[in-house]
Design a protein that fits this description.
D-Maltodextrin-Binding Protein, domain 2, seven-stranded mixed beta sheet, Arc Repressor Mutant, subunit A, alpha/beta
Length: 352
Amino acid sequence: MATGPLAGAQPNSVEQSVLSPPGAGADNGHAGIEFRDLRYFAAVAEELHFGRAAARLYISQPGLSLAIARLERELQVPLFTRTRSKVELTEAGTELLDHARGLLACLDGAVTRVRMAGRGEAGLVRVGVALLAEPAVAAALQAFQEKHQAIVVDRSAMVSERLLAHLAEGRLHAAVIHQVPALAAAETVAWEPLRRGRLAVLASPGSQLALREAVSLSELSDQTFLANPRPLAPSAFEGLKLICRTYGGFDATVLESAAASTAALDTDWRPIQDGTAIQVMAEATARAVRPAHVAVVPIQPPPHYVLALAWRRDERAAVAHRFLSCLRSYRDRHSWTTTPTLRRPTAIPARA
């Protein structure tokens, strides 16, 4: 029987000692057992033939016999009974086979997951989505999860300013936010347009606005605009005032809601339903979240809404860049940043 090194049995960097840590003493009875030994054992146990098992493992038969003998010495029990005509598992061998298969499966699974994580194909990605932005990007988020089922998406919903703060603190990998003025001042955050589209007005069904197919922003100068509380979203509040001045030529009257606007809070919509105020948001979002008996009227561009895809400039996580790449690809395939057009609005009918 050969006494040299096992042919084809160079130690794998993954398959090191499985039953004891490196450097453990030999008096524990299993200091030298490695995943490689279990793989050799499992091959023999499944083939019940040393020659076939050696061929399957691409090693020499004498080398395989040496490995099994060494494993039996480490465990201090025979694993096989051998005769000239057959090889059979002992009771101890049968017990070891069950455990060896489980350990090898765990190892293979761990190696696969680690390699996938290194390529950004598995792991956890923490993503923030601004309030009332999800309907506009839901399709892209769903496409990402369907394509990368080994990646767990931990999603948060909050106002854009808070998402920017979480990005800067490293608590998020990426965020989909409204293009608020604070975005330009976030030095540690990089961003690019993800979706551009038409704005729309949510208005009371009994209002003159509800009769319109579309309006221009300048025609809303006499309206009161509902917005999130200024202390919660100061940049968004100022952004609303800015677009009204820039594109409508007026200083907007703003009514601050009692809480941040979400589809689940009916109290947010009551000022709209009773005609006290209107609310401006992305048209796709407005149509998705509007409550019953509220009209959605598109605003003739400009302005447009812009949703931004943001991330930390020093972000290194492969899973984060996988997410960013997937959303960019979806955006480009669906022309999400193409400037939308709308026919010119009809005038508001004069009141009787």
